[in-house]
Design a protein that fits this description.
The protein is of the alpha+beta class and about 80 residues long. It is about 20% helix and about 35% strand. Strands 1-2-5 form a three-stranded antiparallel β-sheet, with no helix packed on it. Strand 1 and strand 2 form a beta hairpin. The structure holds zinc ion (ZN). It holds the Pfam family DUF7848.
Length: about 80
């Protein structure tokens, strides 16, 4: 999964950052009914647990969005 584009000022490549010092991929869940969002966590299961708690407190909230934050890196080819 990479993207390439050429601008006036150079050729850039963009790809998911898999370097050892990359930010972690994190997962959160957002209620599509009220917009409340769980904490972001590297463990998707934590976000899913939040969904069960939220649905328990709000029995009419049945639809959710998964929010995935994935680090990317852009660099210019020499
Ligand atoms: Zn809700």
């Amino acid at each position: 999964m990479t993207a390439r584009t050429v601008f006036l000022f150079g050729a850039w490549t963009l790809a998911p950052d898999k370097e050892p010092d990359a930010e972690p991929i994190t997962y959160a869940m957002q209620c599509a009914v009220c917009g409340e969002t769980s904490a972001a966590d590297e463990d998707a299961g934590q976000a899913q647990n939040w969904t069960f708690q939220h649905a328990g407190r709000n029995p009419s909230h049945h639809t959710y969005r998964e929010l995935i934050i994935r680090p990317w890196r852009a660099w210019m080819r020499a």
